[in-house]
Amino acid sequence: MSASVVETETTTPAPSPGLREGAFGNATALACRECGHQVALGPFYACPECFGPLEVSYDFPAVTREEIAAGPANIWRYKALLPVPSDIESSPNTEPGFTRLLAADNLAATLGLSKLWVKDDSTNPTNSFKDRVVACALSAARELDARVFACPSTGNLANAVAAAGARAGIKTVVFIPSNLETPKVVNSAVFTDSLVAVEGNYDDVNKLASEIAGEEEGWAFVNVNVRPFYAEGSKTLGYEIAEQLGWRLPDQIVIPVASGSQLTKVDKAFRELIDLGLVEDKPYKVFGAQATGCSPVSAAFKDGKKVVRPVKPDTIAKSLAIGNPADGPYVLDVCRRTGGVVEDISDDEVREAIVLLARTEGIFTETAGGTTVGVLKKLVESGQLDPDLETVVINTGHGLKTLDAVAGSVAPAATIAPTYAAFAATGLA
Ligand SMILES: *Cc1c(COP(=O)(O)O)cnc(C)c1O
Ligand SMILES: [Zn+2]
């Protein structure tokens, strides 16, 4: 018994037949996060031994800061650390990443922080961090010769998949809940003629996608059967933050949690950079942010639990509204291991934080970013985050996609006749 366990942990399986050499770069296998069992690189996401989630493992070569800096100003500068081929830049893709890291001095002063940065992923090609993960999933879909590029989505993922598929010239079929915000529906429909609105919530759409993935041949569902490759794309957020800080890790980082994939992968990125000697080994704390109306991970953290109990989401932060988060337990591990916490805030606090970030830093974030900034504020006020340590907060999406969330909170200060007298009467001069 134990001999076979040791064997599965140490033997790298042969690659699937039909794959070209180097199809997944320096990746060597898919390894189970629970039992360590390894399977060949391919369209697999669950461990055949224990049904645990599979994760990409690698054999990294020596990678230098100079090699990375010489790469393109997008996520492919880190291609040696991703499950993609070395000629990835030659295949049409949306070229996401290398978004700005802004010193947020005004917001820092307002909150009483000594040093704060905003990693602004709202400027990605389809205005959310999802372009990063989708670019990695698209590469996997290509290498696996998929006919159809698909996803179930709460909105941002649908936008990113539809756009990336259009650019790559691969057929897309995108599934969304039928009650989504209009901007997110239009932002997908403009890129694909195969947008499917499903009568149900995200968890229903997700279940349908798994069923289709099981029935149809040649479909790559970015967050289902190629999820291990998709998830690796989030590591680029961690790499960029470290590089943009001058190859240093921040002391504290606040990250939104939907499925929890992004948070766990930013931590994975920081550990890889330390292991590769690209940054100095130092402690850092990872904090998770949820909206109270969908806060299963925050609830489990506060209760000291290891298991995340699914909930029925009810929040304006729809891009974070996953009631049964696949990576929830791993978020708990990361936050506990690093000394961070998972916290949640109300929808009103989300709205206030969107306006706060906009008025202090000129950045219009969507409800997910409002959640993250609002949680940052709460963590400072409750003393759970150290105001004297360098902190990064991630803005994962653009406010124009969730206009309705703040349409009732902000408005013109006055509506006037086009005369100086009318203007003077407003008291704004
Ligand atoms: C999907 C999404 C997230 C969270 O992603 P997970 O990796 O599933 O936790 C955060 N912000 C925005 C805007 C998103 O679209
Ligand atoms: Zn397993």
UniProtKB/TrEMBL annotation:
Which keywords are on file for this protein?
Answer: Lyase, Pyridoxal phosphate
UniProt GO MF annotations? threonine synthase activity
Its Enzyme Commission number(s) read 4.2.3.1
| Class in the EC hierarchy, top level | lyase
Which Gene3D superfamilies does its entry note?
A: 3.40.50.1100
Biased-composition ranges, Polar residues, are 1-13
| Family label | Belongs to the threonine synthase family.
Question: Under which name does UniProt file this protein?
Answer: Threonine synthase
Organism per entry: Nocardioides imazamoxiresistens
